């Protein structure tokens, strides 16, 4: 019984640990996606590039705060920027 309970706790800890770090990484992942996507954007509009640049700068400032709220703000900013890039790639910009 002790072994199965210990094994169960180990499995639970293994499954839950990545979720705790996922939010921290999402900001960095989104920033990298934006960096990778910028040169490949089909439509290069000055206005869009300015919005993306401003969003990245603001997101990096939020990320640098190192707080949960800053991380959430970073994710929000980067997701909006990625949506703008996706809209451009779809020809909507």
TrEMBL record:
Q: Does the keyword Signal apply?
A: yes
The organism's place on the tree of life at top rank: Bacteria
Residues of the signal sequence? 1-22
Per UniProt, the keywords (alphabetical) are: Signal
Question: Which named protein is this?
Answer: DUF1090 domain-containing protein
Q: Which organism is it from?
A: Pseudomonas prosekii
Q: Species lineage, top-down? A: Bacteria, Pseudomonadati, Pseudomonadota, Gammaproteobacteria, Pseudomonadales
């Amino acid at each position: 019984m002790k072994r199965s309970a210990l094994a169960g706790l180990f499995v639970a800890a293994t499954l839950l640990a990545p979720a705790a770090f996922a939010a921290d990484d999402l900001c960095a992942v989104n920033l990298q996606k934006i960096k990778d996507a910028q040169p490949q954007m089909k439509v290069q509009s000055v206005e869009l590039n300015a919005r993306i640049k401003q969003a990245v700068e603001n997101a990096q400032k939020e990320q640098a705060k190192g707080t949960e709220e800053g991380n959430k703000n970073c994710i929000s900013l980067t997701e909006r920027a990625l949506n703008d890039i996706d809209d451009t790639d779809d020809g909507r910009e």
